[in-house]
Amino acid sequence: MKMDLALRKLIHAHLRTSAISMVALAALTVSTAPAEPKSDGAPNTFAEIAERVQPAVIGVISKSAEPEQIVPDLPFSDMPDEDTPDAQASKPSEKDPNVRETIAIGSGFFISPDGYAVTNSHVVKDNGTAEIRTTDKKTYSAKVIGRDPLSDLALIKVDGRTDFGYVKVAEQSPRVGDWVLTAGNPFGLGGTVTAGIVSAREREIENGPTDGFLQIDAPINSGDSGGPTLDTNGDVIGVNSMILSLSGGWAGVAFAIPAETVRSVIPQLKEKGTVTRGSIGVEVQSVTPEISDSLGADDLHGAIVTNVQTNGSAAKAGLRSGDVITR
């Protein structure tokens, strides 16, 4: 009987030790297994997106001749400059030494397989045509269908092909913090992509689009103007447009024209070559405490009219300079 009890204790101890060993082995197996990828929305690579969208991205070259002007040197300033990231070079015209030929190198992207492409208005300027280069290193002549300096958008068209790679304009606006990919033709080097995030939305900058800029931290440089800013689906959420910089190059504050502006402007350019907008016909500025005091009003808030367009809607309605709009 004693022997049986001792044997049972021995067997129990052995089984317990084996169970502990199995647990330890399981823990070891789990700890050495490859970690599962986190599903947090961050892409492991942008390679697939880049490969898919690059055939739609083009280089845009625009040439214009302007009378040569002597411009006085400007004093240095510590304030940031607003730069449009298109690479420019100029040289005396062979036909007229008093005229300089300016060459602007920017970017763009096809929005349809039959050759319609979007770029910046300041890239094509007042020219009726532009030269484009595709990622397969072919060169085409493009007609400028229309341009809108206010939004800094232009629509150009390449004829003769119906099989161009193209990208779609996104229907939804991105969130602050979303990943973005930009594509363009920096310094005329050829197709290039950079990555970053949306830093802010609806940034209001002088002479910017009416809907406000997207601020991104993806680098854009000279020659990237007009290229697409893309989401992780490869859809266009913006158009590279401007850099705010102390040095004249990318310094972390880049701006893109939002997709909603593209959706509003481009169809009008395609249909009639221009954009029609409503206008009140006034220029206003916010009423500051100082302005409120000068008007002899306490805690006055609103917009004070600084200028009224002659024969505009506001003038016909009776608004005058100095009026304050409170609601």
What do these coordinates show?
This protein is of the alpha+beta class. Helix content is 20%, strand content 33%. The chain has helices spanning 2-32, 47-53, 121-124, 259-272, 289-294, 313-317, and strands spanning 57-67, 81-83, 87-92, 99-110, 116-119, 129-133, 139-148, 153-157, 179-184, 192-203, 213-216, 228-230, 236-245, 254-258, 282-286, 303-308, 324-325. It has a 6-stranded antiparallel beta barrel with strand order 1-4-5-8-7-6. β4 (99-110) and β5 (116-119) form a beta hairpin. The longest helix has 31 residues, at 2-32. The chain is globular and about 65 Å long. Mean pLDDT is 79; it is low at 13-39 and 69-81.
Question: What structural class should be given to the helix and strand makeup?
Answer: alpha+beta
Total number of distinct structural domains: 3
Strand content: 25-35%
The named CATH superfamily of the largest domain: Trypsin-like serine proteases
Strand order in space, largest sheet: 1-4-5-8-7-6
CATH architecture of the largest domain: Beta Barrel
Signal peptide: 1-35
Pfam families: PDZ, Trypsin_2
Keywords: Hydrolase, Protease, Serine protease, Signal
InterPro entries: PDZ (IPR001478), PDZ_sf (IPR036034), Peptidase_S1_PA (IPR009003), Peptidase_S1C (IPR001940)
